[in-house]
Write a structure and sequence with these properties.
Bound molecules: thiamine diphosphate, magnesium ion
Strand content of chain B: 15-25%
Radius of gyration of chain B: 19 Å
CATH topology of the largest domain in chain B: Rossmann fold
Mean pLDDT of chain A: 85
Oligomer: heterotetramer
Helix content of chain B: 25-40%
Strand order of the largest sheet of chain B: 5-2-6-7-9-8-14
Number of domains of chain B: 2
Shape of chain B: globular
Helix content of chain A: 40-55%
Strand order of the largest sheet of chain A: 2-1-3-4-8-7
CATH topology of chain A: Rossmann fold
Radius of gyration of chain A: 21 Å
Structural class of chain B: alpha/beta
Structural class of chain A: alpha/beta
Distance between the termini of chain B: 41 Å
Shape of chain A: globular
Distance between the termini of chain A: 74 Å
Number of helices of chain B: 12
Number of helices of chain A: 13
């Protein structure tokens, strides 16, 4: 049980410690977590010698280790944000937390082309919960954090904030705060790729909530009819805001809905970055080869509440407790705990150590580096200038400004 | 009689109507029909009337807004609460179906239905795609739908009773910036007509017209100006369709100066219609309009608040006219 | 071959004779038609003694004969209209012809409650091709024809015209000229029925074109999630305007798309009214018993072009020839001919004679009566007053009129 | 140089741009991109550029209108032709996505895309749900989208070139009532700016402002009035967003009388904005507006034509002002 004890010894793991839920949850998580990881590894080891189905077999060690680094960067960005909301009265950014789901964004984006000329990179369309997708796609953390804090030098000059961030330079077309439309727009990019003979791929992330939107049908039907290089990654974290997905979807596996269109679909363990990567790789290869769309349903979970905002207090609406308005259905404590046993950070780390890609010491050093990077990003962001009020009239059209109308 | 918030007042009206009509339904998405108010019982339509009549749907505002006229055409009173993020989704079905069916059928179709459309996006912090600056105009422009935007808890309750009793489809805009506003509201049911603007303050030097979430700023500006000796008449539009031309024109004919204020976009915002109607009917008066600029609202509070017509800007504009 | 020769001897059968396409098509039709009808009947006869799957076994003879009458009324209304468009310069109505599809509307509406108090009858939502549905549901033909001709005493006072006719008194909520929205609205009626504990059923007719609309997903998903008493009748006539349905749908049977939601679905021969009736009866029984929605795909065909308008000329755009704009795909002559071999009038008539419900003489007499009724309806409609211009300001709201704004 | 129809002129521009940009795409539904014109080669984009670039979709106008900005965001020029029956369907994606993305992204997103929206529903015979009286207002109201409504084949071609070359999303309204209109149009490409109204006739007694399919009626009325000795200035709005205030105000400052004409609904039709802008900027002038009443257009030609502002009514209204 070396791996297990290694994990048990690491402090601050699991997303909700820091004295907020106290030792009891952390303790619970520690013990139960081992079982989950061990079970996961058993599967990997059994397939380690085969060529078929081997996880991430095409990747060199540094790329594999890079996935853990990405997961850690997302996790520590999230946790630092949560801390600020709970403790720093001057902090202004809100966030739809991605903690718990890191392996999905990381595994998918690891299979994409994320740098090079704009005409060659793959595009990612994100959701109202975009930070994980952004970081995995290569968006600069400090600039993103400045944007989330409404700063003039932020990624989008303070116009966007969390739910609307974007960075075309790395193919991150961006957050779409609305549920549904982004998926359809993403098929339009795929249509353009096919029309101009490019091998680029258009990827959209969506939640289980997306299933019910009329856009779900439009996106899948047209992707299938036109054989578009389009990948639909559905992060099924079981809830859309205050309702379990069974309130809006008749399927247990939403992937079955995609299969009905004749679209190849896979259900993957969204907590295991290598499993996610494998599915994404297969989808990307298919799309680049002209084989059309793929649907990936990643079963996952978010640790925090739907939304966190500055001035949050543990247990209060919009922060980190249960929502008193959540009358239709809400997340049971035991469900949260059960999912935390299969933490994506733990799984990735343990797997890499097991594979001999990293030592525990190297993993610890990586985490320390990431924490320093995150702290530096927050510090840089907090020091950035606020926006110039008059700039609100800019960027409506490519040229010029619109007239100020708040004065007569 | 208790001091009540906007939403408590509205749900009190809905609860009363649902108790008196066992066929009536309510469809919501992420905002449960629940309200609390100090000293009053909690209202929870879902638990009181059960999930057959009060349904929590998936994220499909077009279904919500389509189901309600469908219920109405089947002879059931129905209402839905559309969250601000989905405010634009039901546009086509309200414009082309709910609003046209009575006329198209030669008066044979009747739809006693209400679309509550939340306007949270017109408050600071809700930028870009989360700003719903368009809803007042798009729903005021279309035919066959009564569009109202009550700015006080009292009006909200009375107009909700009137809306649910009306055989016409009603778009009931909820200026969520007024969430915390409260005032004395009767516990008993009563109606406020769906056809009349309200003169909130009488005066003779200048008419200021506003609506919805803009009203507190308009009233604050009017108080400042009154303090400075200006005689300001304040009109709260309350009803966007059919707009109450008479109240507007009577006032401007008296004051001969009109300042129309919108918190939504300048071009073709409700204030454009206010100015146009008055200009057609009152010759030789002075007309001014202030509004949010024709730009998607930015996230940064510094940019956003600067772009918004607030009490100071309204007062400034007024001073420049008198 | 008695049945066969009976059919061969009847004049003016098949929808496109009258010298327009000439004897060649009629002759072709005559011979080929026999095979189709005979094949169809063979199936019926083989099952005639059984209780299971017997077509329309619950209906007395007069109701069975009534179905033929309804089919004939729709057919002769269509043909009379087509004649007027081609020949009468003063004729004003346009029409989306339903000829060829009569058995679908007839079979479905025969399973519904069409009279009684409004709170008890079933509701039908129609399409831009509504006359068949309207007549089958019980709408008055003369008033409907007056409406189509824009008359003040028409069904809807001249406000509606063909694509928007409605008559709540028989539960005909009406034509919806738009593709998609009506289906979702129809689920709202079903929702109201269930909420108030009524056993009424809400039925929507849609074309194959409806499949691609985002509304398809909304209607089916919500009907399934809420177990609504809702019946979706999809008339798959293979084309939406100028495109074959394979351009917009990946399924051969669109019913498969409904099955993916867990909705019971049947594919029926839309040319055989009794088969359609059977499927509808099953669906209505299920819905009344609280068993939720059903999807029926009727394979059918329209004989005329998408739309016919006054001043039509054979072979010209919008009339009765091929459309020169139909560049993406269009209906091959042989396909039209093949479908006309299985004419719903012929099949219903032959079946009833075979079953001993009607004699050939009685069927002929019925057709003569129907023709007289249709002629009378057209004559009545043509004599009705035109609309009063100022009435355009009425019926916007329940009370009063709106202001005239075309004058300053 | 040949006499060309509106649609031939437009497709000529599209064809030219597609020949010069192999990435450009065109998405249509039931209206194939085909045009014929006496003495000119048939234009058929589908056969010329193939089905990878020119695609015939199912009945899903929201997909069409979403695919186009998606293509734009991927760096491809793209256009779509939305038939009038589906004119309201793409509203949300144009309003909340196409129009806001540049601003939301701090200027980083660019969408060189065009939404051609057909307005057949504003011609007689297309009643009720088939009337698209709302499209000029809803697309003129929103931010970040340039909305134009050319009324001549010449302008249509030049504005299509300009629209396809513009980095901004353009809503290109097609007043289908002008289908048969033709005039001399150059075979070579040229641009007409997306920012300027056109003064169609100069005069000093009265300014008449119209747009789109209403222009022939306005011009006919102006001809009649001119014949009667009135000096009429006629302005064709051409651009609804950003509306060319300067041209309007300059004219009304001169004539001191404004008659604004819409063929769509009165309340918050484009003419409301025309009157409001002029009333704010020209004091003491006279303002009048005529439009289709706030009623869904009825099917009956008798009702419909009576409700429509035609040349006779425009001339009548003008005579009453001068
Ligand atoms: C069209 C639309 N309607 C409503 C909302 C409000 N909303 C924001 S997030 C959310 C839930 C989304 O759930 P899901 O897709 O499962 O994503 P998750 O939050 O679980 O990541 C809702 C309803 C929205 N953003 N857009
Ligand atoms: C939303 C919408 N888009 C486009 C149209 C134009 N339109 C009218 S009928 C039609 C084809 C419908 O095909 P289908 O559903 O198969 O019915 P069919 O005409 O074959 O009976 C189309 C595209 C419309 N009415 N509504
Ligand atoms: Mg979710
Ligand atoms: Mg069809």
């Amino acid at each position: 049980m070396e791996i297990g004890s290694e994990i048990a010894n690491r402090p601050r793991r699991g997303g909700e410690d820091d004295g907020r839920t106290g030792l009891s949850r952390r303790g619970f998580l520690r013990v139960a977590g081992l079982a989950g990881v061990a079970a996961g590894l058993a599967g990997h080891v059994a397939r380690a010698d085969g060529q078929i189905g081997y996880f991430a077999m095409d990747l060199p060690d540094d790329r594999l280790a890079g996935m853990l680094r990405t997961i850690l960067r997302i996790r520590w960005h999230e946790r630092t944000m949560a801390d600020r909301m709970l403790s720093d009265p001057s902090y202004r950014a809100y966030n739809h937390f991605y903690a718990g789901q890191e392996a999905v964004a990381t595994g998918v984006c690891a299979a994409l082309r994320n740098d090079g000329p704009f005409e060659q990179i793959d595009l990612v369309y994100s959701t109202h919960r975009p930070t994980g997708h952004a970081l995995a796609k290569g968006v600069d953390m400090a600039k993103m954090q400045a944007e989330m804090d409404f700063r003039a030098t932020g990624l989008n000059g303070g116009y966007a904030a969390e739910m609307h961030i974007s960075d075309p330079s790395v193919g991150f077309i961006g957050a779409d705060g609305m549920i549904g439309p982004g998926h359809v727009i993403a098929t339009g990019s795929a249509f353009a790729f096919r029309a101009r003979g490019s091998d680029q791929v258009s990827v959209v992330f969506g939640g289980d909530g997306t299933y019910a939107t009329p856009h779900f049908h439009s996106a899948l039907n047209n992707a299938r009819l036109l054989d578009l290089p389009f990948i639909y990654v559905l992060e099924n974290n079981l809830y859309h805001q205050y309702a379990h997905y069974s309130y809006s979807c008749p399927h247990t596996d939403i992937a079955d809905a995609a299969r009905a269109y004749g679209i190849p679909a896979r259900v993957v363990d969204g907590q295991d970055v290598f499993q996610v990567y494998n599915a994404a790789k297969e989808a990307v290869d298919r799309a680049r080869a002209g084989g059309g769309p793929t649907f990936i349903e990643a079963k996952t979970y978010r640790y925090y509440n739907h939304l966190g905002a500055p001035g949050a207090e543990v247990g209060k609406l919009g922060a980190f407790g249960y929502d008193p308005l959540a009358i239709t259905s809400f997340r049971p404590e035991r469900e949260v705990r059960a999912w935390m046993q299969r933490d994506p950070v733990d799984i990735a780390r343990a797997t890499l150590i097991d594979w001999g890609v990293l030592t525990a010491e190297a993993a610890d050093a990586m985490e320390a580096e990431v924490r320093a990077e995150v702290d530096a990003a927050f510090a840089w962001a907090a020091g950035q200038p606020l926006c110039n009020p008059e700039d609100g009239l800019k960027h409506v059209f490519a040229e010029g400004e619109v007239m100020p109308r708040q004065v007569a | 009689m208790t001091e009540k918030t906007w939403m408590y007042s509205v749900l009190e009206a809905v609860q009363w109507e649902m108790r008196n009509d066992p066929a009536m339904t309510w469809i919501f998405e992420l905002t449960p029909p629940v309200a609390t108010n100090a000293g009053m019982p909690v209202i929870n339509l879902e638990t009181e009337f059960g999930r057959r009549r009060v349904v929590n749907t998936g994220i499909d505002e077009n279904w919500m807004a389509s189901a309600v006229p469908g219920a109405g055409l089947a002879g059931s009173k129905a209402a839905t609460y559309i969250p601000y993020q989905g405010a634009g989704m039901p546009y086509q079905v309200i414009q082309n179906h709910a609003g046209k069916l009575r006329s198209m059928s030669g008066g044979r179709a009747s739809m006693p239905v209400v679309f509550v459309i939340e306007m949270t996006g017109q408050t600071p912090g809700f930028a870009g795609q989360h700003s719903d600056y368009e809803v007042d105009t798009i729903y005021a422009h279309i035919a066959g739908v009564r569009t109202v935007v009550p700015s006080t808890p009292y009006d909200a309750k009375g107009m909700m009773h009137a809306a649910l009793r009306s055989p016409d489809p009603v778009v009931f805009l909820y200026p969520a910036g007024l969430r915390m506003l409260s005032e004395e509201v009767s516990d008993a049911p009563y109606e406020v007509p769906l056809t009349k603007a309200a003169v909130r303050q009488e005066g003779s030097d200048l008419t200021i017209v506003g609506s919805g979430a803009g009203m507190p700023e308009v009233l604050e500006a009017a108080a400042t100006l009154t303090g400075e000796g200006m005689s300001v008449e304040v009109i709260d539009l309350r009803v966007l369709k059919e707009m109450d031309t008479e109240t507007l024109v009577t006032s401007v004919a008296k004051t001969r100066r009109l300042l129309a204020v919108d918190q939504s976009y300048y071009t073709l915002g409700p204030a454009a219609e206010v100015v146009a109607r008055c200009a057609e009917n009152v010759e030789g008066a002075r007309f001014r309009r202030i509004a949010f600029s024709d730009a998607p609202p930015p996230a940064s509070p510094e940019m956003f608040t600067w772009m918004r017509p607030d009490a100071t800007r309204i007062a400034d504009a007024a001073r420049r006219m008198v």
